[in-house]
Design brief:
With 84 residues, this protein is mostly helical. 58% of the residues lie in helices and 0% in strands. The model has no long low-confidence stretch (mean pLDDT 80).
C-alpha cells in the first residue's frame, strides 16, 4: 500500500545523507526508501523543479554538492530565481 504517510515522510527520509543521519543499520527503512523511490510518480516529482544536480541520484558526491549549494544559498539569502 501507498499512503499519504509515505508521501509525507519519504521526502524527509531521502535526505538522510544531507542531514548526517545514517540508515545503514536499518534494512527495513532502506527497503522502504528504495520501494518508494521506484514509483514512476516519485521519479517525476524528484525531477521537479529542474536542478543542475541530478536529484534522482543517490550518489554521495551529488548529495554533498547539493548540501553545499543549499547552505550557501541560505547563508547569503540568494536564489537562482532572483539572480541575487
Amino acid at each position: 500500500d501507498y499512503s499519504i504517510a509515505d508521501i509525507a515522510n519519504w521526502a524527509w527520509v531521502r535526505t538522510h545523507r544531507w542531514s548526517g543521519v545514517a540508515i545503514d543499520d536499518l534494512p527495513h527503512l532502506q527497503r522502504w526508501v528504495t520501494q518508494i523511490r521506484a514509483r514512476p510518480a516519485v521519479q517525476r516529482g524528484i525531477a521537479q523543479p529542474p536542478s543542475s544536480i541530478d536529484a534522482r541520484s543517490d550518489d554521495p558526491e551529488q548529495a554533498r554538492q547539493f548540501s553545499e549549494r543549499a547552505r550557501k544559498m541560505l547563508e547569503t539569502g540568494q536564489s537562482k530565481q532572483t539572480g541575487a
